[in-house]
Each structure stands twice: as C-alpha cells, then as structure tokens.
Design goal:
Elements: E1 23-27, E2 36-43, E3 46-52, E4 58-66, E5 70-73, E6 76-79, H1 82-89, E7 96-99, E8 102-104, H2 119-157
Parallel strand pairs: 1-8
Antiparallel strand pairs: 1-4, 2-3, 3-4, 5-6, 7-8
C-alpha cells in the first residue's frame, strides 16, 4: 500500500533571510509583541523599525543598517561608519548572526524611575557642572584682564 506524501508548502522567506538585500536586520524584540509597524530613517544608512503594542505604547522592534555602513566578519557585525558604531554600542548585547542578513540582539535594559539617578548619571552631572564652572572661571578671568587693560590705557592717556 503506497502512502501519498503531503505536498511540501514553502513559506515566504523573512526579509534578510537570504542575504540579498541592502540592509542588515538586527531584531531586538519579537514581532508578535506588536500590532503595527513604522519605519523611521535616521540618516547615515540607519533605519529604525518601530512597533506599536496593543496598549498603544511604541518601542524599537528592529534596527536596519545599510550594507555600505557595516560588514560581517567571522560571524560578527562590524561597523564601518561612526553612526553604525554608535548604534551598535547602544544595544543591550552584541548582535548574534542568525543567517543571511539577520541578527538578534537584546534591547537596552530599562531603568525604573525609582532607581534614578544612577551612579553613572550622577558622575556625568558632576562632570558637566565642573565643565561649566571652568568655563565661567575662564570668562571671568578674561573680563578681568580686559578691564585691567582698559584701565591702564585710560590712565596712560590722562
């Protein structure tokens, strides 16, 4: 008795699965979390795929990096531009190659408001205050020198 084999159905390949496109896709969150999507061009060969959840909140579903801005080296995505390098640094983990042009990475971790300001935020704020104070001191010294010069030139004329 011969058994009939069921026909093999092929599904449509996901974008970037075959490696023929113009972008590398870095998936941050599963598409199932979202009900609608929007593309946001950032310039510099970067695009953000934003997803809207059922509750109305938006979050980044994926990043797309132009192939002229990055390349694959030993299974790792390596940035060729400053914009792409900054975007890759902003991810929560290094992108893992899934195949083709697709990668998966973790999003940045969320910090609850109760934990803010973090130690890094406090250090950055102190550094900014010190910079501002140094600039003020420099301006004050410059004004004092100008005033002293003006006073000496007035006394020399008199």
């Amino acid at each position: 008795m011969a058994t009939a084999m069921a026909p093999v159905r092929r599904r449509r390949a996901k974008p970037g699965a075959k490696g023929g496109g113009r972008f590398f896709h870095i998936e941050l969150r599963p598409r199932k979390e979202f009900v609608a999507f929007r593309m946001q061009a950032f310039g510099g060969g970067l695009e953000r795929l934003a997803g809207r959840r059922a509750d109305g909140s938006w979050d980044t579903a994926a990043w797309l990096i132009g192939k002229d801005r990055a390349h694959i080296e030993r299974g790792r995505l390596v940035a060729d531009s400053v914009a792409a390098e900054n975007m890759l640094k902003g991810l929560g983990s290094a992108p893992v190659h899934l195949g083709g042009d697709r990668f998966r990475a973790k999003p940045r971790r969320r910090i609850p408001k109760s934990a803010k300001p973090t130690a890094a935020m406090r250090r950055a704020a102190l550094a900014n205050i010190k910079k501002a104070q140094a600039a003020q001191r420099k301006q004050h010294a410059l004004r004092a020198r100008r005033a002293a010069r003006a006073a000496t030139s007035r006394s020399a004329k008199a």
